[in-house]
Amino acid sequence: MSDGDDWAEKYRPEMISKLVGNDDKISKIRKWLESWDDGKIPKKKGMLLSGPPGIGKTTIALAIAKERNWDIIELNASEQRNAAAIRNTASYGSQHISLTSFGGSKKSSMKLILLDEVDHLSGGFGEIKDTAINNAIRGGGLISQIKGDSGGKAELMKLLISTNQPVIMTCNEPMKLWRGGDWRKNKTRFNRVSENIEFSRVKKGDLIKVAERLLVSENKEIDGEGLNLLIENNPGDFRSLIKDLQTLCSGNHKFITSEMVERLVAISGRDFQNNIFNDLAAVYASNSAREISR
User: Fold this and answer.
1) Taken in order 233, 196, 13, 111, is the CA torsion positive or negative?
2) Residue 172, by phi and psi: left (phi above 0), alpha (psi -120 to 50) or beta?
3) Average pLDDT taken over every residue of the chain
4) Rounded distance, CA 193 to CA 175, Å?
5) 22 within 8 A of 55, measured Cβ to Cβ
6) Of 33, 107, 160, 260, which sits with the fewest C-beta atoms within 10 Å of its C-beta?
7) Is 94 within 8 Å of 111 (Cβ atoms)?
8) Which residues make Cβ contacts (< 8 Å) with residue 195, sequence separation at least 6?
9) 271-282: per-residue pLDDT in tens?
10) What phi and psi values does residue 145 have, to the nearest 5 degrees?
11) Is 72 helix (H, G, I), strand (E, B) or coil?
12) Backbone phi, then psi, for 224, in 5-degree steps?
């Protein structure tokens, strides 16, 4: 592949065993996957993977489908978000053919439904009438019948209750998903039908492991000071790390110097989100006004 290719896709792990970081969370996911073995259907047919962007939530879902030879039906909730879109893509699709099939001529009997960025579903959990949803799917009704995200959360709940296929959802901020009425009640209802796995930012040791693996693949080297600088300026985000390495590796040079990393760090912003509850915990644990301000 050329330097112009997206290395985040080029180096996306295709097997669960190749994933790095959040080992305890991966273990919980494995246990949930085992509950689908031998034709069994677990009580909780959904799994919500939450946490900051760039830590591999979508990668995990794709690796699961690849490793288990499951078909995958994918819908990004930040783009297609109302009841009709969810029912058409996920609910109907799970009962018929998949949108994307991974490898091999033999079709899998299992279909993994992947709903990315479900925290982008706005509005409440109010249901839309089936006639309106079905008309919108068939194109037989006015487009104004279902506006914006109407009915998206309610349809998601229906899917989690009625499906016989595994559903994996990703989000950055689960609180955004619960809101719309009584958030505590919404969260309780949701957790009855879905596991909730909250991922942390990636540890420095895991970032180093991925960086070293990628550099070996690209036949590149980096000095220790440069690698430390690159890792120290990373917020715990695999995607940012890989993009930085793609920039540093572009060209015919074999060795990446600390000066090259310094130039990259100086011109690249580091915009990342943090969980307000983690921030407050850090504030209360601090003994320094300067540290609290930081």
Assistant:
1) negative
2) alpha
3) 80
4) 17
5) yes
6) 107
7) yes
8) 28, 32, 44, 46, 47, 48
9) 555 567 777 888
10) -60, -35
11) strand
12) -60, -40
Question: What DSSP character marks residue 100?
Answer: B
Task: Report how far apart, in Å, the C-alpha atoms of 137 and of each of 31, 89, 98, 160 are.
Answer: 36, 10, 17, 20
- For tokens 């506006």, name the residue: 147
**Cα separation of 129 and 101, whole Å?**
32
Nearest-angstrom CA–CA distance, 192 and 181: 18
- The three-state DSSP-derived secondary structure of the chain is CCCCCCHHHHCCCCCHHHCCCCHHHHHHHHHHHHCCHHHCCCCCCEEEEECCCCCCHHHHHHHHHHHHCCEEEEEECCCCCCHHHHHHHHHHHHHCCCCECCCCCCCCCCEEEEEECHHHCCCCCCCCCHHHHHHHHHCCCCHHHCCCCCCHHHHHHHHHHHCCCCEEEEECCHHHHHCCCCHHHHHHHHHHHEEEEECCCCCHHHHHHHHHHHHHHCCCEECHHHHHHHHHCCCCCHHHHHHHHHHHHCCCCCEECHHHHHHHHHHCCCCCCCCHHHHHHHHHHCCCHHHHHC
Task: Return the percentage of the chain with pLDDT > 90, whole number.
Answer: 25
Would you mind telling me the total number of residues written for the chain in this entry?
294
For residue 185, count other CB atoms closer than 10 A to its CB: 11
pLDDT tens digits, one per residue of 119-164:
887 666 766 666 666 666 666 443 445 555 566 788 888 888 888 8
- Please list, in sequence order, all residues whose beta carbon lies within 8 angstroms of the beta carbon of residue 253, skipping any fewer than 6 positions away: none
